[in-house]
């Protein structure tokens, strides 16, 4: 099985999440060929130069070769590159596994939070994600809430 890991890769936090997720996936599925863009120095060594066409070509080639996309959805918004990768991969009608660990998902059954939102839309205790992107994921995949849950989802698609 070939997989592509999509996430931002410029901040320390993103790179650490990518490393943790990649290790967990590789440890659980030893036969997986996991592409992690931050490991591709040909286009992501920021002391070197790669133009937009080279970056798009390299990542599109790897998306087309992949059986599954693992996309991290965390952050203030979904990273723009991740959203583009989800859109491109969705056209292949292959599974997408979203990884969304935001703690604001907790307490969805708390009536105080729901009532506050109804009274005042600015009093939003929850989190929003672009519904088009979410829909693309849900068409053929799943949104998970932890690294462990994401690994289990990949294992199911690997059968």
TrEMBL record:
GO BP: deoxyribonucleoside monophosphate catabolic process
Give an example GO molecular function: 5-hydroxymethyl-dUMP N-hydrolase activity
Q: Return the InterPro entries for the record.
A: 2'-dNMP_N-hydrolase (IPR051239), Nucleoside_deoxyribTrfase (IPR007710)
The source's superkingdom equals: Bacteria
Protein name per Swiss-Prot or TrEMBL: Nucleoside 2-deoxyribosyltransferase
Q: Which organism is it from?
A: Lysinibacillus pakistanensis
């Amino acid at each position: 099985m070939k997989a592509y890991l999509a996430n931002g890769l410029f901040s320390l936090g993103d790179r650490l999440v990518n490393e943790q997720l990649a290790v967990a996936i590789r440890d659980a599925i030893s036969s997986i060929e996991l592409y992690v863009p931050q490991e591709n120095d040909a286009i992501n060594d920021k002391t070197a130069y790669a133009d937009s066409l080279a970056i798009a070509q390299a990542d599109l080639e790897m998306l087309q070769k992949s059986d599954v996309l693992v996309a991290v959805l965390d952050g203030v918004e979904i990273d723009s590159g991740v959203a583009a990768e989800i859109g491109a991969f969705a056209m292949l009608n292959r599974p997408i596994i979203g990884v969304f660990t935001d703690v604001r998902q907790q307490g969805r059954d708390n009536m105080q939070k729901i009532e506050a939102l109804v009274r005042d839309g600015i009093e939003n205790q929850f989190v929003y994600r672009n519904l088009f992107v979410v829909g693309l994921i849900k068409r053929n995949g799943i949104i998970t809430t932890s690294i462990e849950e994401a690994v289990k989802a990949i294992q199911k698609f690997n059968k």
